[in-house]
């Protein structure tokens, strides 16, 4: 549902899971290249936690899957519905399950789908109405069409995100590893979608002003909105591609330039002039709007980190645009790296995070790892509930998060006690329990279901069952009402 940012398959970042994966081998690409890959993927994490656009997209997905799980478990634990996977099978039990499953799935698709469209959509979707989302019947262009080097392109949100990341990676590799900037941006090595916004910027403003590009990309990601938006102007103000084009046009119209001799000192004035010319909210107002989401309820550790990242960004505005404008900000910013990285199949706590935890003299490492592992299992369960079966599973099987996301982190799988795949009607091979001091022992996948009084072995599975389409649902309703 949400774009996976893929750095030439050497690494990936999945924003809805805040999951950084490094596939590259240092022995194959060298230490400098390896550092660049890791920096690139971690920068995508910063783009998520330190921009309103990233925060809003993540929160929409979290709200959607949280809603589905809460409603699903409520029917099972209080209404006596049977625990079944996926929703298509759950819906086959009766009218209540059918109606709710259809409602949950389509509510999720509507909210997550329209948010995802701001990042990337297939070429078959040109207008917002093509997405077939009830609250968006409008014939607005989803993203702007731009001309670069004589060709027409659709400028999507991911072009801004990847363009920003590859340019900051080039600055990082030059600053720390003495790799020429043009080597990192070499068009014979880098996919064109990474360079599209860079080339458009150069054609419009000149290549001598590329030092301004990271700031322009970041301002394009300062979008925060309330669903549903009801005007084309508001849609464009919430889409990074449209914002990028508008920002460049206003820079041209108003003769706005960044002082190349003191870009850090001129940063605030430059951004204020651009945002004011575009009629967009100020940087601090946009960050405040994103932070408001976390007010009024208890936060998980991950949510606490997301909020702390926003607060840090507000006090260090330029760091999310170009951290190397002020190297001190970059050194402090590093403490907000993702708490874990999935490196060559293994999940590890990042160095900065581990050092920070040790300085606090607490058991925070274990706390973060437990929450991270629980999140992995939770996301895997939701994906399968929505009908996305793992390729190694049969139609009567589902699997834990370690297996689903190919993470070598389970002791029981390493010892050959469990494969990570569970078959309908077959008991879990690992016993799990909680002692009187609330210490958990056993399978962490099991831990996800304990608050609901369920076990991983309680679920019946049949992936051949599909939810009906809207037309099929109408036919079912007509037959039931006869």
Mean pLDDT: 89
- DSSP helical segment count: 20
Assign a percent range to the helix content. Answer: 40-55%
Annotation, overall tally of beta strands: 13
Which consecutive residue ranges, at least 5 long each, have pLDDT under 50? 353-365
Characterize the main sheet: 5 strands, mixed
Strand percent estimate: 5-15%
Note the gap between the termini. Answer: 38 Å
Strand order in the sheet with the most strands: 1-2-3-7-8
- Shape, principal axes of CA atoms: globular
Task: Report the C-alpha radius of gyration, rounded.
Answer: 24 Å
Structural class: alpha+beta
Secondary structure elements and their pairing?
Elements: E1 5-7, E2 11-14, E3 19-22, H1 26-49, H2 52-79, E4 84-85, H3 87-90, H4 95-116, E5 145-148, E6 151-154, H5 157-177, H6 181-184, H7 192-205, H8 213-220, H9 232-237, H10 240-254, H11 267-278, H12 283-292, H13 301-315, H14 327-333, E7 340-343, E8 346-349, H15 351-360, H16 364-385, E9 397-399, H17 401-404, H18 411-414, E10 421-423, E11 433-434, E12 440-441, H19 444-449, E13 460-461, H20 470-481
Parallel strand pairs: 3-7, 4-13
Antiparallel strand pairs: 1-2, 2-3, 5-6, 7-8, 9-10, 11-12
Helix pairs in contact: 1-5, 2-4, 2-12, 5-7, 5-8, 7-10, 8-10, 10-11, 12-13
